[in-house]
Every structure is written in C-alpha cells, then in structure tokens.
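Hey all, quick one. A colleague (J.T.) asked me to put the zinc ion job into the tracker so the inputs and the structure tokens live in one place instead of scattered across chat threads. No bug as far as I know, just bookkeeping. Sequence used:
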Amino acid sequence: MDKGIKLFKVFGIQISLNYSWFIIFGLIAWSLAQGYFPQMRPDLPLMTYWLMGLITALLLFLSVLLHELSHSYVALASGIEIKGITLFIFGGLARISREPSDARTEFKIAIAGPAASLALALVFWLSSRGVDFLMPGSVISSIFYYLFLINGILVAFNLIPGFPLDGGRLLRAYLWNRTDNLKEATRIASRVGKWFALLLIFAGFANIITGRLLNGIWFVFIGMFLRQAAAESYQVVVLQHSLEGVKVRDLMTSNVIAVDEGLSVAELVEGYFFKYRYTSFPVVSGEELRGIITLKVVKKLPREEWAYKQVRDIMSGVFSDAVLHPDESAVDALRKMTTEEKGRLPVVEGGRLKGILARNDIMSLYKVKSDLGK
Ligand SMILES: [Zn+2]
C-alpha cells in the first residue's frame, strides 16, 4: 500500500497517491460532468460540466486529505509518529507508526477526522449559500453544495461503529476504557465492522438485482474492502498482544555469519552465498557493522570483476531504519521489516553487530503462543 506517487509534505508527513486514485478521480469527475451537474444545472456547455467535474473532484481530494491530516495532527501531538499518508481508492490512509497507548488518545485521534469533515461540510454549505446570495445563478454554488453533501456523507460513513473505521475506533476506545482490555475491545469492534461490511455487500446485491448496477458494485466493493480491513486490523492487535514484552534480544541469533569487508567478491560467492544460501549477509570490519551485501548486487557485477572487487566496493550502507537494537520490542522489529520489505535485519549495539533477527523467528514464536491459546 506504500507504493504510489509522492506529492508533498505537510507537518513533515509525506503525502502520496496510490495509483488506484487516478481511476477514482476520473470516475468521480466523469460522473459529475455527465450525471450530477447536467441534472442540477441543465443546458450548459459540455466543457463547463467537465471543468466543474474536475474542480469538484480536486476539492474532494483536498477534503479527504484534510480529514487524514487532522487525524495525523492529533496523533503527532500525542507523540505518535506518522509514517505517511497515502490517498487511494476509498479515501485516505494515515500510516501511524504504532497504536495509541491509551483509550483517551485513541478517542482523540479517531474523532479528529470526522470533526474536520464536519467543519468542511459546514464551510462548503455556508460558501454555497454565500455564492447564491452574491452571484445568483452561479455554477460555483452547485460545486460547493456537492462538496457540502459529500463531506457530510464522509462524516456519516466514517462514524459507522465498525473497526477500522473512525467510528469503530471510537467504539473500541469506549470499550477499551471500560474494560481495560484492548484485545477484547478490538475483537468486538472488528466484529461490528465485519457485520456492517456484510450488510453493505448485501445492500450492494439488492441494488444490482433491482437494476442499479453501478451503485450496487460500489457497495459490494466497499463492503469487501471493509471486511478485509476489519479482519486484518484485528490480527495486528492479536499479534501485538501475544508479542508483548518480547525483545529483539530474546529472539535474535547471536552467532551471525558476517562477511569481512576486505573479502573479494569471488571469495564471498564461494565461501558464503554457495555455502550458507542466504540472500544477504551483514558486512563487518572486526565487530563493527559496515554494511549489507546482497545476492542481487553481486549478480549485477560482471563476473570478470569478481576476483579483484572487494565486498566493501559494492555493499550497501546501513541506515538506522534498517537496523535493530537488542532492547527494541519484537513488534517494532516486525514493523521495521515490513516497512523496509526485509526478511532479516541486523541487530546492532554501539556500532557493533550483536546478532540478526528474521521475520520467521518472530512469526514462529507468535504461532506457538497462539497455538497454546495465550
Ligand atoms: Zn478518518
């Protein structure tokens, strides 16, 4: 879901567009230009309808962005880092670095988005009235009126009490606060989310049967997406719960097979890639971690250079994002692996290579724990 086009930064948060967004942008502009606006304002030139459609779609995009930004702003103010905001087919998604640590924070973050949409709805409604008053008959008032409607719908849809929608988060915060049990609160909130998703899918099929094909497909689509999201977010919480208190130190492999940076690439291939069959190795000088060497990089190097090129010439550097600390939590480690798209990460303390941790090491502990019903 991270893939997309990087746009710009707000409060230091990277805003990106998922490719699917272009499809939806086109669809919205098209349906406005061909359906909604000609119905509201008949007998205008086609170009005007298209211009109105494009401007409205753009302002809708800004509305969704402001909704996500206000979630992010409150999260940042509560000390939760935001990895980025991706706008995609069904709106936006702010990727927070971790779940809030208490119910109150969760509540504040969740309510911020719908509050922003509500404020926008109000602003667009007032603007629409204002334009009507100052420039009677202007098409601008229709644009604002549509944005008032759509922001209102955004408020209503997001307040549905099914996790992971905002309303579901509010419900979870409420249950969490009452029972002090995050896992149980999430279970209930995601179950409501799944039921609501089923209801949407059912309504979608009812629409399709009665001939409203496009509406129906939309409902089914959103319902399926919501169902998936509800299941996944519950899984994440269960995972976090069973890995609570587990540190990188507890799971890492201490005797790491590391490569000396002065080795030739030929020796590296013969003595490491063939022998151990990993796709990457940490590179060291003494005990100090210097970089990472991957099979991919070696493959790119012409074979005749293997004998005289050294590992240090072609290795990639280590970034703090791609390195673990022994005292880091297993959940954070897993998150880093997912963000960096790496199956293994080196563990470093004071510049020295202490071990290596693989995703499988974490997942097998999780599997054992969940099999034992812990
Ligand atoms: Zn939201």
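Adding what we noticed when we looked at it: The chain has a mean pLDDT of 84. The CA atoms of residues 223 and 339 lie 27 Å apart.
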